[in-house]
DNA sequence: CTGAAAGCGCTTACAG
DNA sequence: CTGAAAGCGCTTACAG
């Protein structure tokens, strides 16, 4: 059924059908009702392609998950037999929350995952083909930034989750960031409260904004409390389980071991737990561990992991809402926001003040 | 840039541009090359809406996650403050694998999540609006079947994951199922091999095909081995963590406890672990537990959960591949396939033959 | 307030 | 082999 057909049935022109559907003013209530009723009765839905082609919005956004490898290491996602594994604690909540919020606002979402520069070209094609009205990017690093900035220059509405806000000066976009710094400060302050004076850290890939900020938070909090980070107590990981494992082996292989380790994400904490078990040590009796992300898995570890919650739900919802608002207002926003970070106390940190 | 503009630059008509892009035969190599080069140089991409409107395929499919509540219980997904939680071990790998496979085949995917009958109407709109060329449905139950069957009757290409294949007789679609029965048989046979003679079960919501089949597999395997399922050893859960917890409390609250429990999915196994710990019992010393799904979390439990892997990756890839093939061949397939089920031995089952 | 008409950018018979 | 033209189903000035 086309608008033409419906128009005939109702006895109006198809212009009127369009006007009712798109909520134009100055239509008598009677006409509006008649049309609305006919739409319902005949189950009419305007052809999306025709609308878009004629200049209306598509009500479609894309969510782009970037996991472009540099130095051969995927960051948040593991691959097996050339396909992606389901262990994806970083991305998958975001997909759900973005979809949910977009649907609530009556938008559809296309999902796109890029593992390589080649995939990135496909992402660009989505824009070139005018399939979408805007997009949310997550997990950007260096190589893809240029493409994203080009898109912004071309006038596309874009939201960036977890991207260095420095760019906001030159590129109008919606920047929604994790409050890595605040989270890290809270984590380290908590350890200090519990009496820890010798604290180690396993960092993420320091090319990532989030990894660097988490490290900064730790360093400054230690300094602020007159404590020091021994170079033996810092291990540069890459946010993978394996690097958490290696980090522990490395850090605890020193004469003066720290009493606590700040592990920069929960995925690495899993590896850390394994290494600690292998060394015959217990958490938190022998060593305290604090994670970051409050991922799904963290509460199921033994002992349950104390960690930092970074309100992924809020971030995803906020980015989606702002993006759609910018689309509807037909202008690029320039907004920088940060999420909250909350300490989630569980059982992996020991109070050593009485020791 | 429109095809018209490009045509002028190259010195051909826009028909020729189209023909090259869509790989028509009978174009001299020289012309083809010239056009291809210009496309590359000017970064031309045909407008998706225009293509679709003119009758070409959109190269777009939808993946629809159905979690329509009946009797107030969401099945695979938990909600908090009216939004969906990230704990989604059932759906999220599927999203990733489908997207991945579709992208490989040069298709885009729209993701849609339905929690209510109202949401379902939105899903239908995606079809009515001609946004997509086909869709994959996951998690169907009763209420939504009718809508899906209508869609099939209208000629849409549809793949159904984990839906009763009985419908294949009357509705041409691609049915890809978990091999619940085989998996359940393998799980129970393994327990019997280890010497267990008294085996309990916590089922899923028996309205779901998967729950019923898993129960059937257990019953028939027991029978086949001359064993019996005591009614005290069956608890009807609903695939949620809480029901796993309650199931254990219920089943172990009998004078003659089973030595092993088959928990119908890994999520319920998490609850089962908690209940067992509360009862002061140990896994597997006091009670053996076997799960189902081989979800992300299962290997991180303490002890690591023995479970059944149902090759979600294969299922998702297969459904996607077949759906796209049916779209490209412009006809509805009628195919029923089952995935493999593999026993994953970990540490939650005890060999009690020597006891 | 409302209709007729142009136009969005493609694809696909139709001719030649 | 290739171009001119019709048509896909909308939306949006333009008139009235």
Account of the protein in words:
- 2 copies of one chain form a homodimer.
- The first copy, chain A, is elongated and about 90 Å long.
- Chain A is of the alpha/beta class and 355 residues long.
- The first copy, chain A, has helices at residues 3-10, 14-21, 29-42, 48-53, 92-104, 117-128, 142-153, 180-193, 209-224, 241-251, 266-278, 312-328; strands at residues 60-66, 79-80, 83-84, 108-114, 134-138, 157-161, 174-177, 199-203, 234-236, 260-263, 288-290, 307-309, 335-338, 342-344.
- In chain A, helix 6 runs parallel beside helix 7 (142-153).
- The longest helix of chain A has 17 residues, at 312-328.
- Chain A starts with a helix and ends in an 11-residue tail after the last strand.
- In chain A, helix 11 links the parallel strand 10 and strand 11 (288-290).
- The first copy, chain A, is 41% helix and 16% strand.
- Chains A and B meet through helix 4, strand 3, helix 5, strand 4 and helix 6 of A and helix 4, strand 3, helix 5, strand 4 and helix 6 of B.
- Strand 4 (108-114) of chain A pairs antiparallel with strand 4 (108-114) of chain B, so a sheet runs across the interface.
- The first copy, chain A, binds a DNA duplex (16 and 16 nucleotides) through residues 2-4, 12-19, 22, 26-28, 31, 46-56, 130.
Strand content of chain A: 15-25%
Please state the average pLDDT score of chain A.
88
Poorly predicted regions of chain A are: 70-88
Top-tier CATH class of the largest domain in chain A: Alpha Beta
Name the chain pair with the biggest interface and residue counts per chain: A-B, 49 and 50 residues
What is the number of helices of chain A? 12
Architecture per CATH nomenclature, i.e. the level-2 architecture of the largest domain in chain A? 3-Layer(aba) Sandwich
Shape descriptor of chain A: elongated
Overall number of structural domains of chain A? 3
- What percentage of residues of chain A falls in helices of 4 or more residues? 40-55%
**Spatial strand arrangement across the major sheet of chain A:** 4-1-5-6-7-13
The CATH superfamily of the largest domain in chain A bears the name Response regulator
CA radius of gyration of chain A is: 25 Å
H-E string of chain A: HHHHEEEHEHEHEEHEHEHEHEEHEE
As for the CATH topology of the largest domain in chain A, it is Rossmann fold
Gap between N and C termini of chain A: 78 Å
Number of strands of chain A: 14
Multimerization state: homodimer
Determine the structural class of chain A based on helices, strands and strand pairing.
Answer: alpha/beta
């Amino acid at each position: 059924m086309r608008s033409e057909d419906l128009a005939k049935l109702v006895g109006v022109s198809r212009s009127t059908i369009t006007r009712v559907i798109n909520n134009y003013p100055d239509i008598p209530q009677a006409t509006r009702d008649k049309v609305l009723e006919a739409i319902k009765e005949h189950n009419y839905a305007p052809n999306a392609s025709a609308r878009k082609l004629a200049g209306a919005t598509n009500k479609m956004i894309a969510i782009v998950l970037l996991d472009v490898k540099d130095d051969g290491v995927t960051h948040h996602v593991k691959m097996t037999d050339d396909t992606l594994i389901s262990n994806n604690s970083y991305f998958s909540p975001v997909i759900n929350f973005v979809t949910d919020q977009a649907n609530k606002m009556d938008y559809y979402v296309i999902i796109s995952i890029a593992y390589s520069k080649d995939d990135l070209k496909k992402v660009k094609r989505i824009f070139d083909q005018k399939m979408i009205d805007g997009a949310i990017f997550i997990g950007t690093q260096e190589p893809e930034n240029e493409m994203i900035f080009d898109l912004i220059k071309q006038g596309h509405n874009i939201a960036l989750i977890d991207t260095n806000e420095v760019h906001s000066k030159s590129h109008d976009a919606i920047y929604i960031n994790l409050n890595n710094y605040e989270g890290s400060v809270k984590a380290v302050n908590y350890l200090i409260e519990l009496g820890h004076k010798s604290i180690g850290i396993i960092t993420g890939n320091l090319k990532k904004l989030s990894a660097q900020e988490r490290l900064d938070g730790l360093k400054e909090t230690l300094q602020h409390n007159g404590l020091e980070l021994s170079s033996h107590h810092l291990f540069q990981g890459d946010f993978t389980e394996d690097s958490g494992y290696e980090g522990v082996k490395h850090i605890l292989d020193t004469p003066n071991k720290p009493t606590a380790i700040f592990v920069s994400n929960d995925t690495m904490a899993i590896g850390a737990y394994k290494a600690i078990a292998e060394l015959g040590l217990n958490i938190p009796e022998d060593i305290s561990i604090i994670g970051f992300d409050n991922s799904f898995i963290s509460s199921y570890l033994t002992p349950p992991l104390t960690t930092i919650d970074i309100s992924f739900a809020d971030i995803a919802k906020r980015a989606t809402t702002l993006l759609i608002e910018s689309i509807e207002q037909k202008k690029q926003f320039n907004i920088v926001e940060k999420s909250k970070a909350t300490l989630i106390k569980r059982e992996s940190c020991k109070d050593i003040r009485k020791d």
